[in-house]
Amino acid sequence: QVQLVESGGxxxxxxxxxxxxxxxxxxxxRVNAMGWYRQAPGKQRDLVAxxxxxxxxxxxxxxxxxxxxxxxxxxxxVYLQMNSLSPEDTAIYYCQTQGYVNGWGRGTQxxxxx
Length: 114
What we know:
This protein is mainly β and 114 residues long.
């Protein structure tokens, strides 16, 4: 079964950086697209970034130039490098896979203090 386990969240000051990781198992990682989504309190879950099996990326306008998604197929892991963080980036960040199988992780909390 699909398992996605996020890590790397935490508390950071505005302007700081964090790198999130998502370890995947239970499916053929290299053939599936991967993505990061986030949900702030009282808001809907929104797309942050996606990466296809071939490495093409897509970003929400709000994170372009600050966040970078990448994947390591040898490690079955997808990453989200987050720079220049602001309090508006505070949310639970979820890893998602989409393709011949679909699934979500349980999320990791990112809190950015002003």
